[in-house]
């Protein structure tokens, strides 16, 4: 299986949230130089927006040459996350706020040979998670309120990224940090410098004239900062 990310590099994951779904094949081709496709699953309960379910994600998996990074913004994470592993996502990230048994869920996902991620809304502190962070391949720190693309980056999340990276390094763990929301040429370097190594960008890439150019520009800016 293709692996969407690891701790020893910088990875660009375009979000297809604001892509043209009627032309999904072409929209996927535009981002073929990226590392993974970030698919935002929203259930209209955890967030006030509704997007894909497992059968649509399965179709995206079949159409895409890149691995799929599924970001589940769903209330019923414990019971519904497995379905996204079963339809072929390579990484499945659920929100800590939605999971009753996050360690069990991470272990069940990893047993299915997918990478497991845990996500935090901006107002959720990272500290209570640190004792169990080694159960995950990735920590997703939201840099906007989840639900919609095109919002402005929350600068106030930078110290949280820095604290999370310091704690992960101190424990000698191999956990990637993903940032999602408002990531662009203007903000990506500050995220990388703070300790993120996986970067989701939706509007920055899909609104660009040339998505491939935008992906390589973002990658180049991130790579100016060493992985931690
Ligand atoms: C927001 C989603 C993001 C979103 C990012 O809830 O999780 O992945 O699509 O879009 P931009 O990059 O436009 O902020
Ligand atoms: Zn997302």
Written overview of the protein:
The chain has 228 residues and is an alpha/beta fold. The chain has a single domain, classed as Alpha-Beta Barrel (TIM Barrel). Helices cover 32% and strands 18% of the residues. The chain has an 8-stranded parallel sheet. The longest helix is centred in the C-terminal third of the chain and has 13 residues. The mean pLDDT is 97. The site of D-xylitol-5-phosphate has 21 residues, from β2, β8 and α7.
Structure keywords:
32% helix; 8 strands; eight-stranded parallel sheet; TIM Barrel; binds zinc ion; 228 residues; 8 helices; D-ribulose-phosphate 3-epimerase activity; alpha/beta; binds D-xylitol-5-phosphate
Radius of gyration: 16 Å
Task: Provide the list of bound ligands, each named once.
Answer: D-xylitol-5-phosphate, zinc ion
Under CATH, the topology is which? TIM Barrel
Tell me the structural class.
Answer: alpha/beta
**CATH homologous superfamily annotation:** Aldolase class I
The number of helices is 8
Low-confidence residue ranges: none
Q: Largest sheet, if any?
A: 8 strands, parallel
Distance between the termini: 25 Å
Order of SSEs, N→C? EHEHEHEHEEHEHEHH
Quaternary state reads single chain
User: What is the domain total for the residues?
Assistant: 1
- Write down how many β-strands occur, each being a DSSP E stretch of 2 or more residues: 8
Instruction: Report the sheet-strand fraction.
Output: 15-25%
Which descriptor suits the 3D outline?
globular
């Amino acid at each position: 299986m293709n692996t969407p990310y690891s701790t020893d590099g910088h990875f660009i994951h375009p979000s297809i949230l604001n892509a043209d779904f009627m032309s999904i094949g072409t929209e996927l081709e535009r981002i073929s130089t990226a590392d993974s496709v970030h698919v935002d699953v929203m259930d209209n309960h955890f967030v006030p927006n509704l997007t894909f379910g497992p059968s649509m994600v399965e179709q995206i998996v079949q159409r895409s040459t890149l691995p799929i990074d599924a970001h589940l913004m769903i209330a019923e994470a414990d019971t519904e996350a497995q379905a996204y592993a079963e339809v072929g996502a390579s990484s499945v990230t659920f929100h800590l706020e939605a999971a009753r048994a996050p360690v069990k869920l991470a272990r069940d996902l990893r047993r299915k040979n997918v990478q497991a991620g845990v996500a935090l809304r901006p107002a959720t502190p990272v500290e209570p998670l640190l004792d169990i962070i080694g159960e995950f391949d990735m920590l997703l720190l939201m840099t906007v309120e989840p639900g919609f693309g095109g919002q402005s980056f929350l600068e106030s999340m930078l110290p949280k990224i820095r604290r999370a990276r310091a704690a992960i390094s101190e424990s000698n763990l191999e956990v990637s940090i993903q940032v999602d929301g408002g990531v662009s040429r203007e903000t990506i370097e500050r995220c990388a410098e703070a300790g993120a190594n996986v970067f989701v960008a939706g509007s920055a890439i899909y609104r660009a004239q040339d998505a491939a150019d935008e992906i390589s520009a973002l990658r180049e800016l991130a790579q100016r900062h060493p992985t931690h």
